[in-house]
Amino acid sequence: MMVTCLLLSSIWLAAPASVQVTNRKVQAVQAGGNVTFSCRSVTKEDVIQVTWQKETDGAEDNIATYSTMNGQRIAKAYVSHVSFAHSELQASAISLHGVTLHDEGCYKCIFNTFPSGAVTGRMCLKVYAISDPKVETKLIPSPDKAENSEKMVGMSCSATGKPAPKITWHLPGILQQKPREYHIKFSNQTVTVISNFTHTHSKILQEYPITCMIQHPSLNVTLVLPTDSLEQGPDSSMALSIAIAVGVLVPLTSLLLLTCLLYHGLRHLRDPDRNPAWPCWVGLPFLRMLQQS
Q: How many angstroms from the chain centroid is the CA of residue 16?
């Protein structure tokens, strides 16, 4: 019965009447969102069935039908994320939930009338997608092998989306270098855009604020480059390691020395004739203190 209902849209000839699309003929939605398509027949003829189709690779894929006899019917491939928002013979609307990139395309609402045949409305959907943009900085070795050569700072800004995001930089006048940009295309029609460049460190991020701007139909954001990764570069990390080592070893050495002194002092008090010769580093004041106690 479902197959019979769906075939009604293709066996009748087009009628001279028209269909009013009650929403925008081209809608845009971000991936993961919802969208609703609405149509209304303006013919005075009797409507037998309403059919919804999606144009796929030059063919029409049946999505859903509504008729008085069979009620609401949704094809198996769409039942998980398509529902009727409104269902009458003269007006119909369907909603797509959790839109994906595969839902992009054009859709038809077909009113099968008697005796003239089918009248059709057409609308299209654009799906946008954008990932969380990333911006990072890091210290990299200088091409100059000299020991006192200044470190280089690498700056990178990237985002993945459909359509491809646009990346621009807000740079101080001293940076004349043009950022290098790379595009990586994926099979799901998304594009990763990476923009980066390097510059002699010289505390440039502390002296000049540098920002990365990402423009996209569903997102416009300005990101400030972080400086945390630069404040503890390779040299700073080495200095921090040395400071930690000194802070641990000095108290430990002092504790061991004090333990040794107490041990020899107590041994001398218990048996003065056994070891009369004290090491040179045991001072007389310390010896008198032990003898008086």
A: 49
H/E stretch holding 251 reads: helix 234-270
- Residues of the chain with pLDDT > 90, as a percent, come to 40
Task: For 222-252, write each residue's pLDDT tens digit.
Answer: 887 776 655 444 444 444 455 565 566 667 7
Q: For residues 237 and 233, give the distance between their C-alpha atoms in angstroms, rounded to a whole number.
A: 6
Instruction: Tell which residue, 216, 128, 202, 196, has the closest CA to residue 156.
Output: 196
Q: Which helix (H) or strand (E) holds 160?
A: strand 152-162
CATH class of 130-224: mainly beta
Tokens standing for residue 186: 């994926």
Q: Does domain 19-128 have CATH number 2.40.10.270?
A: no
- pTM score, whole prediction: 0.64
At residue 168, what are phi and psi to the nearest 5 degrees? -130, 160
Burial class (CB in 10 A: 0-12, 13-18, 19+), 200: exposed
19-128 and 130-224, same CATH topology: yes
In contact, 126 and 112? CB cutoff 8 Å:
no
- Listed in sequence order, the DSSP H helices in the chain are 2-11, 204-207, 228-231, 234-270, 284-292
The C-alpha torsion from 97 through 128 and 131 to 33, rounded to 10°, is -20
